[in-house]
Amino acid sequence: MELLLRAAYSREKKTYLDQANLELQIVRLLVRLGKDLGLTSLKQYEHISGELIGLGQQVGGWAKAR
Prior knowledge:
about 85% helix, mainly alpha, single chain
């Protein structure tokens, strides 16, 4: 969220959006690791993965629109 806020108020939008996308990738990896280690159920994993996909689509859309 911090990176998206910085992108909103910066002339360097692409830099912050790229960083936000990288952070999303890291979160996706950690969520998958949590599932693989049995820390979350498959249902929980599916839910958060869907939310992360939606957020990634929004960030990608914003990057393309600029």
